[in-house]
Amino acid sequence: MKPIQFPENFLWGGATAANQCEGAYNEDGKGLSIQDIMPHGIKGEPTAEPTPDNMKLVAIDFYHHYKADIKLFAEMGFKVFRFSMAWSRIFPNGDDTTPNEKGLQFYDNVIAECEKYGIEPLVTISHYETPLNLAKEYDGWHSRKLIDFYLNFCKVLFARYKGRVKYWLTFNEINSILHSPLMSGGIMTPMDKLTQQDLYQAIHHELVASAKAVKLAHEMMPGAMVGCMILAMPTYPLTPNPDDVLAALKTEQKNYFFGDVQARGYYPKYLNDYLDEQGVHIQMKPGDEEALKNTVDFISFSYYVSACETTKPYIPSEGNLLGGAKNPYLKESEWGWQIDPVGLRVVLNEYYDRYQKPLFIVENGLGAVDKLVPDGKGSYTVHDDYRIDYMRRHLIEVGNALRDGVDIMGYTSWGCIDLVSASTAQLKKRYGFIYVDRNDDGTGTLERYKKDSFYWYQNVIKTNGVCLNEQG
């Protein structure tokens, strides 16, 4: 077999989100976001106001450490750094008429640091950070008014960073709204009271907003590339029983349709049939169908786990918002997420066959409890062989997908530096190559320490993945 070979221009890097790393939740004119009232992640109840136990209020204080952190990313050899621009840092209430200059200046500074080291910024416009005011006053994306508020936000970003940011993502894990309407869509209506009609209408508003943002970006920033971002979780039939195969297909379609609309420019027939069965009638405004024809330039996605589907009773598996039946052939992480490197190759092949557009893996990583130990040189480190093994096996499958003929733009590992977990709001669930000394009780110095995986990933980037052939 031919050795794994990554393209010369392959974009190696890492990914973060503002709400999980920046902190400074009320500094320099920033307004509150939905994350500031979600101290326990996706499964906990939101609070009325920010509470001291919310780790995201300080997070890892990237807001004051960004220069040193980006310098560490550069030391690893990053070609690209994915981060989000907090909507409420720029428009504190979301529906403001003028932006907060100090918020814009912060991202000016972040981009300047990236430019200093030759790192391409990859900006997520909306990453689970709906301004709290938009959630409370409008019920988030349930309201069509959010389309205009979002496009106003986009307009400001595109005008400010034109020529400095080439790669953009419209919404993070847009399909996650099916499972977490508050975090993903800023919808305050509780899940048990949210009708299918209202949920899919909110989804329609997001899809129209995404398409209009693509058009706006192409008009304002010729040469810019705009992608959608999907939570990818391949679903296998638990058995060869045709009923299980069909159940897996139907589950996949619920996620596929988000990519189908954004990559193809229209609602697929299988979705329209499903909505009819559910009694859901999307209220299309004049121009919506035309707007959806503004398709994305590339498909980006997160990948952590796969799942199984069956029509019989099953043992459930944990996962990145989505779940399913437990796969008896796979091992699990400490948080019960089943580890399936081959599933990444499956996703890459399926998405490329389906869309024939470049793909970008913008999240992949292992959340684990890390132990900080002396490094014998007067400092500290983490011996995270488990993380290296996880990432090595996944990157080998990326290399195999390249051999399959898949067009892959790049790979940004999730949580290239430790940050607050979206699902559990914990810091002890660490993903990074860089350890941040902060604990779930709020203690810690915020000092940064390089883990063993820091040097491993540095070598992967330096050799453009050639070293994976030796390890595989």
Describe the structure.
The structure is a single chain. The longest helix has 25 residues, at 196-220. The protein is an alpha/beta fold. It has 15 helices and 16 strands.
Q: How many DSSP H or I helices?
A: 15
Rounded radius of gyration (Å): 21 Å
Quick one: how many beta strands? 16
Low-confidence stretches: none
Measured between the Cα atoms of the first and last residue, the distance is 12 Å
Helical amount: 25-40%
- Please name the CATH topology: TIM Barrel
CATH architecture: Alpha-Beta Barrel
The CATH top-level class label: Alpha Beta
Structural class comes to alpha/beta
Number of domains: 1
User: How would the global form be characterised?
Assistant: globular
In CATH, the homologous superfamily goes by the name Glycosidases
Keywords: Glycosidase, Hydrolase
Family: Belongs to the glycosyl hydrolase 1 family.
GO biological process, one term: carbohydrate catabolic process
Protein name: Glycoside hydrolase family 1 protein
